[in-house]
Amino acid sequence: MNGVFDDVKTVKMVHHHLFPLVLILLWNPVYSAPEQIDCCVCGSLELRSPKGLQPNIYPSPFQVLVKEKQYAPGGLSINVNITSLDNTRTFVHFMLQAVFIKQDGSISSDDSVGEFINLDEDKYTTVKDCGTSAVKSVDRLKKSLIRFSWKNGDVKNKGHIKFRATIVEDGGTNYWVRELSHPVEDVNLPPLDMRPNKQPLIPVINTEECGRVKGCYRVPEGCWEPYCDYIATWRKTAGNSYEIELGAMTDGVTDRYVAMAISDDIRWGDDVVLQCVHNGTSKETQVNVGRSVDDHSTVLEEQRVQDNAIIGPTEGPLGQIWGKRLRCRFIVSTGAIPGFPEGDKHILMSRGGASNGVSQRHGHGVGEIPVATPDQVSLQENHNVGDFARFSLVKAHGILMILAWAFFGTTGLLWTKYYKTMWPNKRFYGERYWFVAHFNCMVMLVLLVVIAFIIIFVEVGGYSRADYLPYEAHPILGIIIFCCILLNPIIALLRPAEDHKCRPVVNWIHWFFGTVGWCLAIPNMFIGMDFGKAMVPWWATWILCIYILYHIIVEITLEVHQCCTHKKNKERRKKTCWSNASNLIIRFIVNVSGILELQKDTLNKALNHKSASTFLDWLPSHKPSTGPSKITVWHLTNVDYK
Ligand SMILES: *[C@@H]1O[C@H](CO)[C@@H](O)[C@H](O)[C@H]1NC(C)=O
Ligand SMILES: *[C@@H]1O[C@H](CO)[C@@H](O)[C@H](O)[C@H]1NC(C)=O
Predict the structure, then answer these.
(1) For residue 335, what are the CA distances in angstroms to 147, 270, 494?
(2) Can you name the residues that pair with 183 across neighbouring β-strands?
(3) Mean local confidence (pLDDT), 86-96
(4) Over the stretch 345-394, which tens digit does the pLDDT of each residue have?
(5) 3-class secondary structure for 247-276?
(6) Are 186 and 72 contacting, i.e. CB atoms less than 8 angstroms apart?
(7) What angle do CA 273, 278, 283 make, to 5 degrees?
(8) Nearest to residue 478, comparing CAs of 441, 438, 437, 531?
(9) Which of 256, 278, 279, 301 has most ligand 2 atoms within 8 Å of its beta carbon, as the pocket-test mutant?
């Protein structure tokens, strides 16, 4: 029995002591987070653990300092400090190494060089690592300064160096990887050259010679090269060799292209292209021969053509991107390019982005579409062209569409929305004024839209090739609008009689298609004006903006006015209906009269009828017995009795 009790006791005790133990075990990893840090991987100087921790991206509060600017392999040692900038922040772990650097200051190898001696051995414990060439801390003391002496004992191991260290701040969550010291030059080697761009600038394109010594195509007209959006020059050097200069203003400082196409027409596509492309990866500007396809260019595959056709200058690079200007200068041997067009041709220029040395598609917006000489020019002659070809069909499309929507569309809409109740008793060929106006406006709109639609299909030669937003949306919206525009007159023609029970439904469908077309047309007009081919000046967009705004204000005003006068209108409509009715009756009397004079009281009786139907019921029985047997009462049925 005793044993049993003892057992129970021990179980209880185990429970009693185990619980805090488990808690401590659980607590411990959190508590000892800094202890887990394992610094560092030789070479990359990344932390070995913890794995998920990201290095701090803010400037490090710790620095690797050296005073010396030079050292000699096998010579004297130099002092290196790892120090806290403001002494309030301290570091615990670190690893320090020296690495060789190239002439331009970039790291040439991750391997550690030389050997360190800890000058603060009495305070902090460090060990050598990475084959005794690097040094790292093994104590857990907080440090704000630790001094080393470094020496490259091997005379043959030459090279400029930098010191670098990974430093973990006290607390263990902040650390900085590969903090670099200033470079220390090897006295035996040529000095470092760390200028960012060591290539000489290629000379600007001389525009003084345009038209005299060489042919030029410049946009804007007569520009001086640094201000030209596009510039291409050509000068015959020998046989079928030409010196070509290409230049363009770019929107970036890297990875851009400027290209020149020799073409039969003013459109980019199926032409020989000379491209000047900046390759951001190799930081070089290359020239190649290509072919334009739709809105981009492909480089001719045959290396033989590229090598034989393009000859660079004897000295310096073929081209350069400097600031926001890209320019190339090269000699092209046209005989080496298969299918190089002879004779008078349009010269087209395109520019845009490039990726890894390959030119990208050109844009479709204002200032993005290629420019073309309005007339054909010959590379043999020293032309001086500054103008660019216009796309008259695109302009016609735009003008017709704006006329259709901004003028006829808005006007037609206003008539049907707000003028239905005006001039209730005036007619034009038997139709109410608003209807006549609305009908005519809409007929004009449909006509103009159909013409503009055909024009743009002819110009583009099929469906639009602009395949990115917002330009991609223009043809899609256009086709939807076109369908609405075609459906609506058909619906209007097939509509049932005014008093048919389906008439309101048809009216709503008519309204729906009209409204959808109109609502899509407004954004589509703005997208359209943004197309480069339309060549719309920037202020034209504002005029359209103001016009649309004005239209909206007019609509709102009319809407408010209609709302306020709705009640009044209803009463007035009743009145006008009746005055209208009496008017007609009098006309009817006039028609009939000469034969018979209706008595005054009969007329009064007629006017007492409150609705058309009762009046019409009443009419036959009171029809004059003599006179014309057929009396036109058509007008009466058409009166708006509400
Ligand atoms: C390293 O720190 C010590 C003590 O502050 C200082 O005397 C020495 O000049 C420093 N050395 C370097 C290279 O900064
Ligand atoms: C651009 O430069 C990179 C790196 O040098 C190279 O790999 C690539 O082929 C170049 N692109 C072209 C089109 O030459």
Answers:
(1) 69, 19, 67
(2) 162
(3) 91
(4) 899 999 988 888 888 888 888 878 888 898 889 888 888 888 888 888 99
(5) EEECCCCCCEEEEEEEECCCCCCCCEEEEE
(6) yes
(7) 150
(8) 531
(9) 279
Residue burial 252-283, b: 16+ Cβ < 10 Å; e: rest: eeebbbbbbbbbeebbbbebbbbbbbbbbeee
At 628, the amino acid letter reads: P
Select from 2.60.40.1210, 3.90.1150.10, 3.30.530.20, 3.40.710.10 the CATH code of 215-386. Answer: 2.60.40.1210
What is the tens place of the pLDDT at every residue in 285-326?
Answer: 888 888 888 888 888 888 787 788 888 877 778 888 887 889
For the chain, how many helices (H) and strands (E)? 12, 28
Q: Which ligand is nearest to the CA of 283?
A: 2
Q: If you take atom 8 of ligand 2, which residue's CA is the nearest one?
A: 356
> What confidence score (pLDDT) does residue 427 get?
73
Class of domain 34-186 (CATH, top level): mainly beta
Residue nearest to atom 11 of ligand 1 (CA): 81
Written as one letter, the residue type at 125 is: T
Per-residue pLDDT tens for 507-523? Answer: 888 888 888 888 898 88
- The side-by-side arrangement of strands in the sheet containing 62-66 is 62-66, 78-84, 145-151, 115-118
> Do residues 182 and 78 touch, judged by C-beta distance below 8 A?
no
- Ligand closest to Cα of 184 equals 1
Residue 207 and residue 225 in contact, taking contact as beta carbons nearer than 8 Å: yes
| Architecture in CATH for domain 392-565 | Up-down Bundle (1.20)
Ligand 2: atom nearest CA of 286 is 14
Of 68, 76, 79, 82, the residue with max ligand 1 atoms within 8 A of its CB, to mutate for a pocket test, comes to 79
What gap in Å lies between CA 63 and CA 636, rounded to an integer?
100
Cα 177 to ligand 1 centroid, rounded to whole Å = 22
Output the DSSP codes for 359-418: E-PPP-BTTTSPEE-SS-B-TTS--EE------HHHHHHHHHHHIIIIIIIHHHHHHHHH
C-alpha 123, offset from chain centre: 60
pTM over 0.85: no
What lines the ligand 2 site, CB under 6 Å? 279, 281-282, 286, 356-358
- The reply to whether ligand 1 has any atom less than 6 angstroms from the CB of 66 is yes
- Bridge partners, residue 233, by sequence: 216, 245
Report yes or no: 357 and 299 within 8 Å, Cβ to Cβ: no
pLDDT tens digit string along 152-166? 988 888 999 999 999
Residues of each domain in the chain carrying CATH 1.20.120.1770: 392-565
